[in-house]
Amino acid sequence: MKTKKKIIIGSIVLLVLAVVGYSFFKGGDAIIIEAQTVVAKKANVTTMVTATGTIEPINQVDVGTQVSGVVEKIYVDYNSEVKQGQLIAELDKTNLKASLTQAQAVYDNAVSQRNYTQTIHDRQKTLYDNQVISKSDYDDAEYNYQTAKGTVTQRLSDLQSARTNLGYANIYSPIDGVVLSKDIDEGQTVAASYSTPTLFTIAQDLKEMQVEADVDEADIGNVKEGQRVEFTVDAYMV
After folding, report:
1. pLDDT at residue 23 greater than cutoff 60
2. CB-based contacts of 69: which residues, under 8 Å, 6+ apart?
3. What is the pTM (predicted TM-score) of this model?
4. Which of 25, 91, 104, 190 could disulfide-link to 169, CB 3.0 to 4.6 Å?
5. pLDDT in tens, 200-216
Protein backbone atom coordinates (compact mmCIF):
# COMPACT_ATOMS: atom_id res chain seq x y z
CA MET A 1 0.00 0.00 0.00
CA LYS A 2 2.79 2.41 0.88
CA THR A 3 4.66 1.43 -2.28
CA LYS A 4 1.60 2.29 -4.39
CA LYS A 5 1.36 5.72 -2.71
CA LYS A 6 4.98 6.46 -3.45
CA ILE A 7 4.47 5.51 -7.09
CA ILE A 8 1.46 7.87 -7.41
CA ILE A 9 3.31 10.78 -5.77
CA GLY A 10 6.36 10.22 -7.95
CA SER A 11 4.20 10.19 -11.07
CA ILE A 12 2.63 13.53 -10.12
CA VAL A 13 6.03 15.14 -9.52
CA LEU A 14 7.31 13.93 -12.89
CA LEU A 15 4.18 15.28 -14.61
CA VAL A 16 4.65 18.73 -13.05
CA LEU A 17 8.32 18.84 -14.08
CA ALA A 18 7.37 17.82 -17.60
CA VAL A 19 4.80 20.63 -17.88
CA VAL A 20 7.26 23.24 -16.55
CA GLY A 21 9.98 22.09 -18.90
CA TYR A 22 7.64 22.15 -21.86
CA SER A 23 6.47 25.70 -21.04
CA PHE A 24 10.07 26.92 -20.64
CA PHE A 25 11.34 25.58 -23.96
CA LYS A 26 8.18 26.31 -25.94
CA GLY A 27 9.02 30.01 -26.18
CA GLY A 28 11.58 29.46 -28.91
CA ASP A 29 14.74 31.56 -28.71
CA ALA A 30 16.19 32.09 -25.27
CA ILE A 31 16.25 35.64 -23.81
CA ILE A 32 19.78 37.02 -23.82
CA ILE A 33 20.63 39.64 -21.17
CA GLU A 34 23.62 41.85 -21.97
CA ALA A 35 25.42 44.04 -19.44
CA GLN A 36 26.80 47.36 -20.72
CA THR A 37 29.39 49.49 -19.04
CA VAL A 38 30.02 53.23 -19.42
CA VAL A 39 32.74 55.55 -18.22
CA ALA A 40 31.72 57.73 -15.26
CA LYS A 41 32.01 61.50 -15.86
CA LYS A 42 30.85 64.77 -14.30
CA ALA A 43 27.53 66.32 -15.47
CA ASN A 44 24.92 68.81 -14.31
CA VAL A 45 22.13 67.61 -12.05
CA THR A 46 18.71 69.12 -12.82
CA THR A 47 16.31 69.65 -9.95
CA MET A 48 12.64 70.31 -10.71
CA VAL A 49 10.51 72.26 -8.23
CA THR A 50 6.75 71.86 -8.57
CA ALA A 51 4.05 74.03 -7.00
CA THR A 52 0.37 74.81 -7.43
CA GLY A 53 -1.10 78.28 -7.73
CA THR A 54 -3.52 80.53 -9.56
CA ILE A 55 -3.37 82.78 -12.62
CA GLU A 56 -4.28 86.34 -11.70
CA PRO A 57 -4.09 89.75 -13.36
CA ILE A 58 -1.12 91.91 -12.45
CA ASN A 59 -3.33 94.82 -11.42
CA GLN A 60 -6.75 94.31 -9.88
CA VAL A 61 -8.91 96.37 -7.52
CA ASP A 62 -11.48 95.25 -4.95
CA VAL A 63 -14.42 97.67 -4.99
CA GLY A 64 -16.30 97.99 -1.70
CA THR A 65 -18.69 100.32 0.09
CA GLN A 66 -18.10 102.68 3.01
CA VAL A 67 -21.77 102.85 4.06
CA SER A 68 -24.31 100.20 4.96
CA GLY A 69 -27.54 99.72 3.09
CA VAL A 70 -29.60 97.70 0.64
CA VAL A 71 -28.33 97.25 -2.91
CA GLU A 72 -30.92 98.96 -5.11
CA LYS A 73 -29.38 98.76 -8.60
CA ILE A 74 -26.52 96.88 -10.25
CA TYR A 75 -25.41 98.03 -13.68
CA VAL A 76 -22.62 95.54 -14.51
CA ASP A 77 -22.10 91.78 -14.46
CA TYR A 78 -19.28 89.26 -14.87
CA ASN A 79 -16.89 90.11 -17.72
CA SER A 80 -18.42 93.57 -18.17
CA GLU A 81 -15.98 96.17 -19.46
CA VAL A 82 -16.05 99.32 -17.34
CA LYS A 83 -14.47 102.77 -17.50
CA GLN A 84 -12.99 104.79 -14.67
CA GLY A 85 -15.75 106.80 -12.96
CA GLN A 86 -18.55 104.65 -14.43
CA LEU A 87 -21.54 104.06 -12.11
CA ILE A 88 -21.66 100.32 -11.45
CA ALA A 89 -24.09 100.04 -8.50
CA GLU A 90 -26.35 102.06 -6.20
CA LEU A 91 -27.46 101.59 -2.62
CA ASP A 92 -30.85 102.65 -1.29
CA LYS A 93 -30.59 106.34 -0.31
CA THR A 94 -33.72 106.73 1.83
CA ASN A 95 -32.00 106.66 5.23
CA LEU A 96 -28.98 108.58 3.98
CA LYS A 97 -31.17 111.40 2.63
CA ALA A 98 -33.03 111.56 5.95
CA SER A 99 -29.71 111.81 7.81
CA LEU A 100 -28.61 114.62 5.50
CA THR A 101 -31.86 116.53 6.04
CA GLN A 102 -31.50 116.20 9.80
CA ALA A 103 -27.86 117.30 9.72
CA GLN A 104 -28.82 120.32 7.61
CA ALA A 105 -31.53 121.35 10.08
CA VAL A 106 -29.19 121.01 13.07
CA TYR A 107 -26.56 123.08 11.27
CA ASP A 108 -29.06 125.83 10.42
CA ASN A 109 -30.14 126.01 14.07
CA ALA A 110 -26.51 126.26 15.16
CA VAL A 111 -25.93 129.13 12.71
CA SER A 112 -29.01 130.95 14.04
CA GLN A 113 -27.80 130.47 17.61
CA ARG A 114 -24.35 131.80 16.69
CA ASN A 115 -25.84 134.89 15.02
CA TYR A 116 -28.02 135.55 18.05
CA THR A 117 -25.15 135.24 20.52
CA GLN A 118 -23.00 137.42 18.26
CA THR A 119 -25.60 140.20 18.39
CA ILE A 120 -25.70 140.02 22.19
CA HIS A 121 -21.91 139.91 22.32
CA ASP A 122 -21.55 143.01 20.18
CA ARG A 123 -24.11 144.90 22.27
CA GLN A 124 -22.50 143.86 25.55
CA LYS A 125 -19.10 144.87 24.23
CA THR A 126 -20.38 148.35 23.41
CA LEU A 127 -21.88 148.70 26.88
CA TYR A 128 -18.70 147.38 28.49
CA ASP A 129 -16.53 149.81 26.52
CA ASN A 130 -18.76 152.64 27.77
CA GLN A 131 -18.43 151.23 31.31
CA VAL A 132 -22.17 150.62 31.57
CA ILE A 133 -21.93 146.92 32.47
CA SER A 134 -19.43 144.94 34.48
CA LYS A 135 -16.66 142.80 33.01
CA SER A 136 -18.42 139.69 34.32
CA ASP A 137 -21.47 140.40 32.15
CA TYR A 138 -19.26 140.94 29.14
CA ASP A 139 -17.33 137.70 29.83
CA ASP A 140 -20.60 135.75 29.85
CA ALA A 141 -21.54 137.17 26.44
CA GLU A 142 -18.06 136.39 25.10
CA TYR A 143 -18.25 132.78 26.37
CA ASN A 144 -21.68 132.16 24.85
CA TYR A 145 -20.55 133.57 21.52
CA GLN A 146 -17.40 131.43 21.34
CA THR A 147 -19.39 128.33 22.34
CA ALA A 148 -21.92 129.01 19.59
CA LYS A 149 -19.11 129.37 17.04
CA GLY A 150 -17.66 125.99 18.08
CA THR A 151 -21.08 124.37 17.78
CA VAL A 152 -21.42 125.69 14.23
CA THR A 153 -18.06 124.18 13.30
CA GLN A 154 -19.09 120.81 14.73
CA ARG A 155 -22.50 120.82 13.03
CA LEU A 156 -20.87 121.75 9.73
CA SER A 157 -18.61 118.72 10.04
CA ASP A 158 -21.65 116.50 10.67
CA LEU A 159 -23.38 117.99 7.63
CA GLN A 160 -20.39 117.35 5.38
CA SER A 161 -20.15 113.77 6.67
CA ALA A 162 -23.83 113.20 5.86
CA ARG A 163 -23.31 114.56 2.35
CA THR A 164 -20.27 112.34 1.86
CA ASN A 165 -22.16 109.25 3.03
CA LEU A 166 -24.95 110.01 0.58
CA GLY A 167 -22.34 110.18 -2.18
CA TYR A 168 -20.96 106.78 -1.12
CA ALA A 169 -24.34 105.25 -2.02
CA ASN A 170 -23.26 105.60 -5.66
CA ILE A 171 -20.49 103.08 -6.38
CA TYR A 172 -18.15 103.93 -9.24
CA SER A 173 -15.40 101.98 -10.97
CA PRO A 174 -11.99 103.28 -9.86
CA ILE A 175 -10.17 102.06 -13.01
CA ASP A 176 -10.69 101.00 -16.61
CA GLY A 177 -10.95 97.23 -16.75
CA VAL A 178 -13.06 94.08 -16.72
CA VAL A 179 -15.30 92.85 -13.89
CA LEU A 180 -13.86 89.54 -12.64
CA SER A 181 -16.35 88.90 -9.83
CA LYS A 182 -19.67 90.26 -8.58
CA ASP A 183 -20.38 89.35 -4.96
CA ILE A 184 -23.73 91.10 -4.50
CA ASP A 185 -27.27 90.96 -5.89
CA GLU A 186 -30.06 93.52 -5.98
CA GLY A 187 -31.96 93.57 -2.70
CA GLN A 188 -28.99 92.29 -0.70
CA THR A 189 -27.96 94.16 2.45
CA VAL A 190 -24.32 95.14 2.82
CA ALA A 191 -22.82 96.24 6.12
CA ALA A 192 -19.78 98.49 6.28
CA SER A 193 -17.76 97.75 9.41
CA TYR A 194 -14.05 97.75 10.25
CA SER A 195 -13.30 95.76 7.07
CA THR A 196 -14.93 97.10 3.93
CA PRO A 197 -16.97 94.37 2.18
CA THR A 198 -15.91 93.55 -1.38
CA LEU A 199 -18.69 94.05 -3.93
CA PHE A 200 -16.75 93.77 -7.20
CA THR A 201 -13.28 92.74 -8.29
CA ILE A 202 -12.05 94.59 -11.38
CA ALA A 203 -8.94 93.64 -13.39
CA GLN A 204 -7.15 96.43 -15.18
CA ASP A 205 -5.71 94.42 -18.09
CA LEU A 206 -6.33 90.72 -18.80
CA LYS A 207 -3.59 90.70 -21.44
CA GLU A 208 -0.96 90.81 -18.69
CA MET A 209 -1.36 87.98 -16.17
CA GLN A 210 0.85 86.43 -13.52
CA VAL A 211 1.03 83.08 -11.74
CA GLU A 212 0.98 83.16 -7.95
CA ALA A 213 2.22 79.83 -6.57
CA ASP A 214 3.05 78.55 -3.10
CA VAL A 215 6.49 76.91 -3.01
CA ASP A 216 7.31 74.55 -0.14
CA GLU A 217 9.91 75.72 2.37
CA ALA A 218 12.08 72.71 1.50
CA ASP A 219 12.25 73.81 -2.16
CA ILE A 220 12.37 77.59 -1.86
CA GLY A 221 16.17 77.57 -1.54
CA ASN A 222 16.45 76.15 -5.07
CA VAL A 223 14.42 78.96 -6.64
CA LYS A 224 16.41 81.89 -8.06
CA GLU A 225 15.44 84.98 -10.01
CA GLY A 226 15.66 84.49 -13.77
CA GLN A 227 15.17 80.72 -13.77
CA ARG A 228 13.02 79.15 -16.45
CA VAL A 229 9.43 78.43 -15.38
CA GLU A 230 6.75 76.41 -17.13
CA PHE A 231 3.10 76.11 -16.14
CA THR A 232 -0.01 74.27 -17.29
CA VAL A 233 -3.70 74.82 -16.58
CA ASP A 234 -6.43 72.26 -16.03
CA ALA A 235 -9.20 74.41 -17.51
CA TYR A 236 -10.56 73.62 -20.95
CA MET A 237 -9.18 76.07 -23.49
CA VAL A 238 -10.42 76.58 -27.05
Report:
1. no
2. 91, 92, 93, 95, 96, 169, 189, 190
3. 0.65
4. 91
5. 999 988 888 888 888 88
